[in-house]
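pipeline stage [seq->struct] | target=CHAP domain-containing protein | organism=Lichenicola cladoniae | residues=152
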Amino acid sequence: MAGFCGRLPRKLFSFVLLGFMLSGCASGLQCAPYARLVTGLPLNGPAAGWWDQSEGRFSHADRPVPGAVLVLRSTSRLPDGHVSVVRAVLGPRQIVVEQANWEPGRIDRASPVIDVSAVNDWSLVRVWWRPSRSMGRTMYPAYGFILPRSPG
């Protein structure tokens, strides 16, 4: 194997390695490994577990900032939760995220997300659904945002 990898151009090898890193059991591309790759956060396992896993290691916020990770809770529709990376804050209730596998097998680099919580604390969100070219109808509970810097 080392001989084979040594013959691959470094860029191609990196691309192949990225493919293996992002692959999952059934649906291929997964949100958590992708968010880890984009942010460098050393968190593992299902996306919904990132919130507790990051406690004390990284700051949590109820307001979005670019580079933060939005963590959606586990639900019947999202048994493992979901994570996405904030790319831009467009207003107090609208952000743009980069994410993998919201639409199965796809990386979205500019998906709108809106806060639909009663008190504007980002505890309930709706996410853009590209196939319908509109905001999805489902409201997803969210933990909040992990800031990829250590607290203090």
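stage status: PASS
auto-comment: Residues 72 and 142 are 4 Å apart (CA to CA). Residues 1-5, 12-26 have pLDDT under 50 and may be disordered.
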